Amino acid sequence: MMLPKKLSCFLLVCICLFSCIALRAQKKDSINKSLVKDSSKLDFVAKMQAFAKRSSKKSADEFDADKATIAQIKTFDEIQRTMQKAKIYVNGKLDTTDTKNELKKIEEDFAVAGDGIFTDRGSSQTFRNLTATSKILSQLLNKVNARKLKLDARQQELNNFRYQLDSLLSVPALFKFPADSVTLMKYLQKIKVIAYETSPIDTSLKMASNNIQNLLNQVNMTAFKLESSLEEIESYQKDMAGQTYKREFGNLWKSPGNYRPFEEILYFSKTKGLLTLTFYAGNNTGKLILLVLLIATSFIYLRSLKNIYLENNLLKTDFDGQLVLRYPLLSAMLIIISLFQFFFVSPPFILNVIFWSISCICLSIIFRKYISKYWMRVWLIMVVVFLIAALGNLILQASRIERWGMLITSILGVIVGLITILKGHREELREKWIVWSIAFMALLELISTLANLFGRYNLAKTLFIGGFLNVVIAILFLWTVRLINEGLFLAFNVYSGQDKKLFYLNFERVGKRAPLLFYILLAVGWAILLGRNFPAFDYLLKPFQNFFTQERTLGDYTFSINNLVLFIAIMSIAVIVSKIVSFFASDGHLPDNKENKNERQGIGSWLLLVRISILCIGLFLAVAAAGIPVDRITIVLGALGVGIGFGLQTLVNNLVSGLIIAFEKPVNVGDIVDVDGQGGKMKSIGFRSSVISTWDGADVVMPNGDLLNAHLINWSLGGNRKRISILIGIAYDADLEKCRQLLTEILNNDQRISKNPGPVVQFEQFSNSSIDLRIYFWTKHIGDTSATRSDLIIAIVAAFKANGIAIPFPQQDIHLHHPDQQ
């Protein structure tokens, strides 16, 4: 076993030093003998001084030796620990096979992606092939860069281990040798053992470092090749964008100059398409999960809305104005997919085809027996030709078979479009905008036919898919807007409270026709989806992307418009979700029965906490997504603390009071309360203030601080019961026991009066005109108190009249005394 160079040299030096020390010891003994002889001649003081010097030197030497021994032991222990860590790291974290396999897989994917561009390129490039290859190479480059970062980190760890070992073997304390020869021999033996133990670790570290470096070289070469290929593709795309009308092939009726088997083109197109889809889905798994969750949430909302309409017999048999409730799951899928697809940045065309196909299937089922047969046939024809065009667009390399297929399909599109425009049943159309979309489709397909005939393949293919896509997307978006508007309108109709704060939307302006803003957004989305098929779209869009992605500096903080938009979007979603929770927890849209009422009150008691939790989670996610530094938040909180100290005490008091109400729950939504003489029902408990609906019909907005500090009377906490007393005066000659029996019978016969505790009849006092008695009773519900009191007064008066018991009015006898007449 070979020793490390440093330890071998060190051991050789130690042996030489040991020999020198032995010679020096012999010389020192002879000198000491001579000194002993000379010392006898000195006087006593000189002897003591010499003894003191010798003792002092000996003590210092022993102290230095002890320090060196401690340092040597510590260094040896540190060397042992470092070697153990290095051994574990080398054996456990240097799986170079995984990296080699990944590089091999990247090379295979690169070969697939480069088909039709770098190999078997034919006579011309195609826009869709360049786009697909660019997406694949970008993902491969991301994989290579990620692997490079891991290898760099491993190389750094290996270098750190070697540096630590070299540093430990260079500690000065290791070169301080014991004066005793026996101890010195043991020390040298220990160094020899350390040298033998360090040697294999040092060799393993060197070999691992060399292997990592070799892999890094391969990774760097692969990254360079991918970057060069991407630059080449970008050059092709730039040339293609600037030469949109350039002829790539000969006329369609001429023989092809280059031929490649169509089956081979299909195979590589399928392989490349699935590869792009796999890469994109893996990088956007979170968005796909969020898409599914949004569909589930929308489905639950629409199904709940449909159940409300069914329970109240409000659902129409023909679903006129209620189409969104016909199939809640399909409506939710259509709405969410149509809107959420814009959150996928630069998706592969195959993913868009999947989204559009699902949406078309959903809308076709929703249309069944709702629209006229004529327009249903037109829609199905448009869907079929669109799917044919979409599948043709997935073929990434030009071929004569595909060109003939494009020609036949585009001519069919022109014919169908002209027939629909000229002989269509326009009066049956529910959305008149569709006619304009069909006319635009016929125009694009006509130009595509001419371009295809005369060899403008890329232009023909772009217009070919764009024409059919334009119709399908327009119809999908028009009905998506219509269904969204119907959902809002139907929710407004069944929400009896008509609270405009529900979604921060004015529902009174929601009608059977969607607002103009919805159609503007529809047109923008239609233009974006249509423009993605044109080569020049990315270059026209690049300035806008740079505007949003460019990093800007404000002081020490670096941000981009994308981060700010993301922050606002996440917070907006959190607010909307909290409002949706308010909608489902509110009681204005549910049947008014006791079971549901108790359930709603249970939900309402936790509503504020749930909303606060949603907003806090939204704020945390928004801050994390926007990349806002924590120290900046600390500064903002500090500034906010100063603001609180000067002028925000009242606001903070109300906010904190809201939290206390949410946790302690002295009052819940739906409770019957009295606050400073204001009686009513708790309508809502907000962050800063709460709303009480009074018995007079007004809504009192009370800050949470005042609500918490006031003498709050909560009748609902006691079971919504209330004790009532009625004072009655009867004549002095009345039969008191009979009065008691009559009153007890009247009270027991009223079902609104609680029997436990039962009613009580008490005689109180002799007043001026009557004997006063008072009846006490509990009503089962506080809402029945006024009606019960009124009905009891009527019953008591009738019973007293029937039994001859008088209720005297206040009277006074006046006696006149005339002394003169006596």
From TrEMBL:
Q: Provide the species name.
A: Pedobacter panaciterrae
Mode of membrane association: Multi-pass membrane protein
Asked if the Swiss-Prot or TrEMBL record annotates the protein with the keyword Cell membrane, the reply is yes
Keyword tags: Cell membrane, Membrane, Signal, Transmembrane, Transmembrane helix
* Boundaries of every Mechanosensitive ion channel MscS domain copy: 650-716
* Residues in the signal sequence: 1-24
Q: Name one Pfam family in it.
A: MS_channel_2nd
Where, per UniProt, does this protein localize?
Cell membrane
Annotated ranges, domain Mechanosensitive ion channel MscS C-terminal = 726-807
Residue stretches spanning the membrane: 285-302, 323-343, 349-367, 379-398, 404-422, 434-455, 467-495, 516-534, 564-585, 606-628, 634-656
UniProt record similarity statement: Belongs to the MscS (TC 1.A.23) family.
What InterPro entries does the record tag this protein with? Answer: LSM_dom_sf, MS_channel_C, MscS-like_channel, MscS_beta-dom_sf, MscS_channel_2nd, MscS_channel_C_sf, MscS_channel_TM-2
Q: What is this protein called?
A: Mechanosensitive ion channel domain-containing protein
**Domain of life of the organism in this record?**
Bacteria
Q: Which PANTHER family match?
A: MECHANOSENSITIVE CHANNEL MSCK (PTHR30347:SF1), POTASSIUM CHANNEL RELATED (PTHR30347)
